[in-house]
Amino acid sequence: MLNLSQSARFDELSVAVPNFIRYPTIRKLAERVQYETLNASARNAVASSALNDAHNHSHHSHNASRSARILDSLYQTPIADASILVAITHERHPKLLLTRRAAHMNSHAGEVSCAGGKYETGDGNNVVTALREACEETALPPNKVQLLGQLPIQTSKSGMSVRPIVALIAPDLVLVPELGEISRIFWADFETLLTQPTVEYSIEYAMQDQMATILTPSWQVDGETVWGLTGRVIASLLETGFDRQLEWYYRIQESQL
């Protein structure tokens, strides 16, 4: 049995340095996500000096200090109700790790999500929450994760604050779904997310005493429909990394009567 408190030691986590990333798509994403992570922490006045040496290009010390600043920003970020791991494979044609929640779960049963879950007191910060939950759900070892940074907080339909943590993982990792929580692990092709249009998806939703049909954007990935909070996180990732603007909406379908 993996001792999770030991496996997700925050001070042993590594940060991916863009200079050392060979593949252009992932390098650009890393640069943008890290810039956003440092900027957000500077805006919060948590690390107001974080960007002072952002243009210092003395390679070794710059890379070391950049990694330290990213970790510092992640560590100092206020703790969210839950955190998810936006895990991307480190390869020429990257893929995004997705899971389908088990049908018997109390919340979001059968829905597509990133690995992740609620903060627990021993976690200490959002990154450890995301890594611990991803390890529990998919057997992803925390020491096989290279952090890129974080995305803006999202709010779930139940009102929970959710912090997306973006990271790189090796493409050949063997992951195993924890069937008590998730029924399936699958992958979204990154290039497809970047280029294909979203598909309008309709869901039946109970509002007051009647059912309404809600229309919202979605992606179709490997036979699954990706929408809701997971869809918004992906849209945020694509906007941060590649300036892809997607309007994300929830619209009540007018009655055809």
Number of E strands: 13
Give the helices and strands as they follow along the chain. HEHHEEEEHEEEEHEEEHE
Strand content: 25-35%
**Gyration radius, to the nearest Å?**
19 Å
Net shape: globular
Low-confidence stretches: 1-7, 46-58
Count the DSSP helices. 6
Q: Summarize model confidence as the mean pLDDT.
A: 85
Question: Helical amount among residues, as a percent range?
Answer: 25-40%
Helix vs. strand class: alpha+beta
User: Main beta sheet: strand number and arrangement?
Assistant: 6 strands, mixed
Report how far apart the termini are. Answer: 58 Å
List the helices and strands and how they pair.
Layout: H1 4-7, E1 14-15, H2 24-43, H3 59-76, E2 82-89, E3 95-101, E4 112-113, E5 115-118, H4 126-138, E6 145-150, E7 154-155, E8 161-169, E9 182-189, H5 190-195, E10 199-207, E11 210-221, E12 224-226, H6 228-242, E13 251-252
Parallel strand pairs: 1-6, 2-8
Antiparallel strand pairs: 2-5, 3-4, 3-9, 6-8, 7-8, 10-11, 11-12, 11-13
Walk me through what this model shows.
- The chain is of the alpha+beta class and 257 residues long.
- The protein is built from six helices and 13 strands.
- The protein has helices at residues 4-7, 24-43, 59-76, 126-138, 190-195, 228-242; strands at residues 14-15, 82-89, 95-101, 112-113, 115-118, 145-150, 154-155, 161-169, 182-189, 199-207, 210-221, 224-226, 251-252.
- Strands 1, 2, 5, 6, 7 and 8 form a six-stranded mixed sheet that branches. Strands 10, 11, 12 and 13 form a four-stranded antiparallel sheet that branches. A three-stranded antiparallel sheet has the order 4-3-9.
- Strand 11 (210-221) and strand 12 (224-226) form a beta hairpin.
- The longest helix has 20 residues, at 24-43.
- It is globular and about 60 Å long.
